[in-house]
């Protein structure tokens, strides 16, 4: 036992307390030790919430590096702060007997605000924030960072704050738990909360043997289940995930939760298994949550922390949003608003021999104004498969369709019966179709079925690509945004307008939103 075990630790009061507990236990076994305090990124960056820093193992990375550089022999951590996958060459050497697992609310004066509509609660934890808002949706959450002492001081200094949330083990271990504090037994703690963990180099047999004598088996079993559950949900400090396992009457009792960051969505799971038959508990519970909307919820949480690189000028359906490649963080909104016009009866008093419909908006206008029996058309010509499908579902059989207006005009010049056509269009329709028909002695009766109004917004500078579905969406976008990006277009007509403004214009193989998404995915492969 001649080797001195160098114990790496953060230099906060709580971290030093935990390291000294390990030091004391090792020395009681006859080992020589030395404390080596270091600062971590999590201690140095105090102006942002933890979940915004985007670093896995923010409180452990500095100690990992020190260990791999052989500057320390072991590191002491709060196990809840440790990533579920350790760096290569580093192992979990021991877990000490667990302390209080609960979260604690430290409040001012009294607890009356818990029954009030308005209150201000401080926490830097996304998990605590989400669970509090799930229970008290009208309360306001403010960010609170720093070590335990500085957080308590900030609570004291901010007169308008009603309370702040802490780990009960943290404030209890260093003896600073105020009288004005209650355990939140309804709040599911962070996986492995209340447990102290020791890491060591996998190659260091001397240190591993020493630490093994400190290991508490029951705590190890329970925290392993909780961390495996966290790992299978692909969570970390950036996701509101809670988990707690405990042993009672030779049974493992487990409860877990996943929430949306604002607390409006919550998925819970519980499981009880006999000790010794518990190896599938974490996997079963994670799968249970994933199958009940957890995957979709995790995807939205992950994307919320990423910068948008693709923007759509038309709102996506949920199914369309899920088609994107994992490298893409997309947002969507409608850059044009449609206002349906009243179509005067004089246009429809007799059967119309030939009509043209180039969008679903025109169909909506017709069926809003009139019943299908009142819409008497001999020949219906339209643009796009989806417009065709809607026409045939709501009005009648389509005589012919093309993928864009220009091709339809060329077809009509060649094959249309008669020399007159009624065109149900927008107030912002393009000139291609009526110009070609007029030049070929076909009379075009234009009926303004709907109005197109620009409703664009300024997109983030992180956007690299924009998706367009009509010339109007292009025109709306360029009113408020730069054009030094890639334009992905649904078809030739939209691309023609885009080429007036963008250097890089790409066109989908078929004129559907899904095809434009496929084109974007190919760009990011």
UniProtKB/TrEMBL annotation:
Signal sequence region: none
Alphabetical list of Pfam families matching this protein: HEM4 (PF02602), Porphobil_deam (PF01379), Porphobil_deamC (PF03900)
PROSITE patterns with a match to the protein in the record: PORPHOBILINOGEN_DEAM
EC number: 2.5.1.61
Transmembrane segments: none
InterPro entries assigned to the protein according to its UniProt record, in alphabetical order: 4pyrrol_syn_uPrphyn_synt_sf, 4pyrrol_synth_uPrphyn_synth, HemC, Porphobilin_deaminase_cofac_BS, Porphobilin_deaminase_N, Porphobilinogen_deaminase_C, Porphobilinogen_deaminase_C_sf
Reaction catalyzed: 4 porphobilinogen + H2O = hydroxymethylbilane + 4 NH4(+)
Domain Tetrapyrrole biosynthesis uroporphyrinogen III synthase: 346-517
NCBIfam families: hemC
Subunit structure as annotated in this protein's UniProt entry: Monomer.
PANTHER family reported in the protein's UniProt record: PORPHOBILINOGEN DEAMINASE (PTHR11557)
Annotated family: Belongs to the HMBS family.
Role played: Tetrapolymerization of the monopyrrole PBG into the hydroxymethylbilane pre-uroporphyrinogen in several discrete steps.
The protein's name: Hydroxymethylbilane synthase
Lineage, opening ranks: Bacteria, Pseudomonadati, Bacteroidota, Flavobacteriia, Flavobacteriales
Name of encoding gene: hemC
């Amino acid at each position: 036992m001649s080797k001195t075990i160098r114990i790496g630790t953060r230099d906060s009061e709580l971290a030093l307390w935990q390291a000294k507990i390990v030091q004391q236990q090792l020395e009681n076994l006859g080992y020589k030790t030395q404390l080596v305090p270091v600062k971590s990124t999590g201690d140095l960056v105090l102006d942002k919430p933890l979940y915004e820093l985007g670093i896995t193992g923010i409180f452990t990375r500095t100690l990992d590096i020190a260990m791999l550089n052989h500057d320390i022999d072991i590191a002491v951590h709060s196990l809840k702060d440790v990533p579920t996958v350790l760096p290569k060459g580093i192992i979990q050497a021991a877990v000490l007997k667990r302390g209080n697992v609960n979260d604690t609310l430290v409040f001012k004066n009294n607890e009356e605000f818990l029954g009030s509509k308005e209150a201000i609660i401080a926490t830097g934890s996304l998990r605590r924030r989400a669970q509090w808002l799930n229970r008290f949706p009208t309360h306001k959450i403010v960010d609170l960072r720093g070590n335990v002492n500085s957080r308590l001081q900030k609570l004291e200094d901010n007169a308008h704050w009603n309370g702040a949330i802490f780990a009960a083990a943290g404030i209890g271990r260093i003896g600073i738990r105020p009288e004005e504090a209650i355990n939140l037994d309804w709040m599911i703690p962070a996986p492995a909360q209340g447990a102290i963990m020791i890491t060591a180099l996998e190659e260091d047999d001397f240190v591993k043997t020493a630490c093994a004598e400190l290991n508490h088996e029951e705590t190890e079993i329970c925290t392993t289940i909780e961390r495996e559950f966290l790992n299978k949900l692909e969570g970390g400090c950036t996701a509101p995930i809670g988990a707690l396992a405990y042993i009672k009457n030779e049974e493992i009792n487990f409860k877990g939760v996943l929430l949306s960051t604002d607390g409006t969505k919550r998925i819970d799971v519980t499981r009880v298994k006999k000790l010794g038959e518990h190896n599938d508990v974490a996997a079963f519970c994670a799968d249970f949550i994933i199958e009940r909307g957890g995957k979709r919820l995790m995807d939205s949480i992950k994307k919320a922390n990423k910068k948008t690189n693709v923007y759509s000028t038309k709102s996506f359906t949920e199914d369309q949003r899920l088609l994107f490649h994992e490298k893409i963080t997309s947002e969507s909104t409608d850059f044009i608003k449609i206002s349906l016009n009243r179509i005067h009866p004089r246009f429809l008093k007799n059967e119309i021999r030939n009509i043209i419909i180039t969008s679903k908006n025109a169909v909506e206008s017709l069926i809003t104004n009139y019943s299908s029996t009142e819409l008497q058309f001999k020949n219906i010509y339209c643009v796009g498969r989806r417009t065709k499908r809607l026409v045939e579902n709501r009005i009648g059989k389509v005589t012919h369709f093309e993928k864009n207006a220009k091709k339809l005009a060329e077809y009509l010049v060649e094959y249309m019966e008669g020399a007159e056509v009624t065109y149900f269009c927008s107030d912002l329709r393009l000139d291609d179709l009526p110009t070609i028909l007029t030049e070929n002695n076909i009379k075009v009766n234009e009926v303004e079925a709907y109005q197109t109004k620009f409703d664009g917004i300024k997109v983030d500078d992180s956007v690299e690509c924009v998706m367009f579905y009509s010339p109007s969406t292009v025109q709306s976008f360029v009113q408020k945004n730069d054009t030094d990006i890639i334009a992905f277009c649904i078809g030739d007509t939209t691309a023609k307008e885009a080429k007036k403004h963008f250097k890089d214009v790409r066109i989908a193989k078929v004129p559907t939103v899904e095809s434009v998404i496929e084109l974007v995915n190919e760009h990011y492969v």
